[in-house]
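Quick question: what would this complex look like in 3D?
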Amino acid sequence: MIKLREVYFSYNKEPVVKGVSLSLGNECIALAGPNGAGKTTILKLMAGIYRPKKGEVFIEGKNIWKLPEKEAITLRRKVVYVHENPIVLRGSVLNNVIFGLELRGVSKEEARKKALKLMRKLGIDELAEKDAKNLSAGQAQLLALARALIVEPSYMLLDEPLANLDWKRRKSVLELLKELRETGRSIAIATHDAFLVSLVCSKAYIIENGSVVSETLPPAIFQ
Amino acid sequence: MLGEVLEIALRSIIVSGLAAVLATSWGIPLSLKLVTDDFRGKKFILDVFRALVGIPTVVVGLILYFLFSRSGPFGGLRLLYTPLAIALGQAVLITPLLVSFAYQALEREKGEVWELAMSLGALKNQASSTLIKETIPKLLNASLIAFNRAIGELGVALMLGGNIKGFTRVMTTAIALEVSKGEFGLALSLGGFLLLITYSITAVSRMVGGKS
């Protein structure tokens, strides 16, 4: 379980997350709310990318900011955050996909094999040797998903995962998300997409102005 | 005359090249530290470096002259009036410029590359090396710009090198000497050569920067 307890965060002086408490167990939760409400920042706090100015972040019961880096990394590596606007590194698509495995010390050969198998499943294996900087937005989104999935995280934090995708790819990503849920993966999604939330998520947090204003069931979320 | 010009040009390239390598070797890690760590006084340090970008070369030369002179703290190293002294002086001179450019390049990439690495479970040093790897063309560009500044300066080379013929004479000190002697032909040849080198470096840095 990932848990935020009374978390505050600010980039400069003005706080953008104000006393947020929420948890992600073996479920799919949605963070919904208007642009600039703080959804992305909350996901990054959950992933341990940002250190809260105040409050605590627990991953599987341990406060990750109070652990030595080597202990915290074991927990952080169970969590993967996928950006809304995918970030691509220089090099081929394949090299991008295996990046997370390289960080974990997996051999290049083993990583490539695993990556190609996953890329086939996502329908992007033909892009393997293409320069990642030349991908379309939709292709880059799938690359980002593949890069996250390859490390087999227990927790996936997705920022607008269907943005930039055409209807055909939206459908396959939706199926993938459902499949991930069936295999017990915990998922948090920041989105505006009511359809996505109602199909995959069991709980929704409504975020406004950096705070959780309500917790609701997906069918009621956009009423 | 051509032989002498080439010899002086080659020495200038070697000395300023060494200065750029030295400044890069400590400037890049320092910039990385400034980008990736939050600590008290960080903004102050950055402001100091930015202010020192325009420091007069003779001031750097004068300070280092006192440090390297026989009675100075590093006098025992007998560096004064050697090419190494010029390289060290130029390295000190160009460090603020290099740090400013490198910091800017790393800071711009940090928001994306660093976060991506962290989001995929990188250790801090893994995220740092990824950031460096992704910024290499821009960092190389910063080093080339710093080299240009080094090869074109006069104050440090004159005060720490002493313009000794065949030993510490570099292009800028040779130009100054030839002008004072009224030998404008050699001075112009050297000046032309210096411009050619700096222009070539600028073109290379534009190409390298463009790739990033």
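Answer marked as accepted. The beta strands of chain A are 2-10, 15-24, 28-32, 54-59, 62-63, 79-82, 155-159, 186-190, 203-208, 211-216.
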